[in-house]
Design a protein that fits this description.
This protein has about 350 residues and is an alpha/beta fold. It has 14 helices and nine strands. It has three domains: about 100 residues, YqgF/RNase H-like domain (Nucleotidyltransferase, domain 5, 2-Layer Sandwich), CATH 3.30.420; about 90 residues; about 130 residues, no CATH class. It holds the Pfam family Transposase_20.
Amino acid sequence: MDEVTLIGIDLGKHVFHVHGQDAKGHAIFRKKLSRQQLLSFFSNLRAVTVVMEACAGSHWLARKLNAMGHVTKLISPQYVRPFVKSNKNDYIDAEAICEAACRPAMRFVEPRTEAQQLLAALHRTREGLVTERTATINRIHGILLEFGVVVPMSKATLRRLPDVIAIHDLPVRLLQIIQRLHEHYKYLDAQVVETEKELVAQLHGDENAARLLSIPGIGTITASLLASEIGSIAQYAGGRNFAASIGLVPRQKSTGGRAKLCGISKRGDKHLRHLLVQGARAVIQRVHKRNDRLGEWIRSMLTRRHSNVVACALANKLARIAWAVLTKHTEYQGSLLVRTS
């Protein structure tokens, strides 16, 4: 055990497969441990480097192992896959994780703090509630349409839906069904509002959030998600690296000295990318009110490119600006970055 310098863990719900190797990459042991046995095993082991894929439960386990004195590193699963040899099983996966971690140019994922994970959980909860609320609205609309009733599904109409459909000659049982769905909609809408209040409350007193909110197109939801997903800003060498981690830079298929750029890569957090693109669209819609350099750049792009392309390009620029304001401890004010501390 004294020779072990690197341990790879293939994570599971109840069973974990562990691969240990020495400094030269020679396998020392393979173990299959339960969740309780895993923590006990590492608590009795001298400090080593532990690597695992960045997935569900990895950030929690990384914090536990770091507290024991170990050095924990997380790797994106896409970088581990090329090192899986021949047939696939859990032990080979753990060995592939060790092999990937030995590469000098390997990129690692920054483990999230508990606060960042709580913020991310709030976002996932809100996203699920919004999806359920939309599905409920569509369900009401579809059922009424089956009986020849067409009403606009605006918020004002939904608030007084029973009164709106009361003028139509509908079966009593149908009215009961609509009433039940309407109550469910009101519950989901209230839950969304409460979740958004929690997100706003968590942003108060956060200097980084205040800086992010100064950027055009970034509101409370996007700023809080950025704060939870970005982790340590020092892990990104530049704004382009951060934009690339969200999937807002072009995919490349370059060869033979000829550069060929495709559409955006769509890697990283899909929800964060969606929010940045929607924020960019909001900025584009009001670009006539902007007299700064950003407004000039958007108007110039719109004369040459489709609005969808400009939205993605602007989302890329907003991500780079977010990296800049967090790195330089500044706020965005028009064409200038004004130092605040």
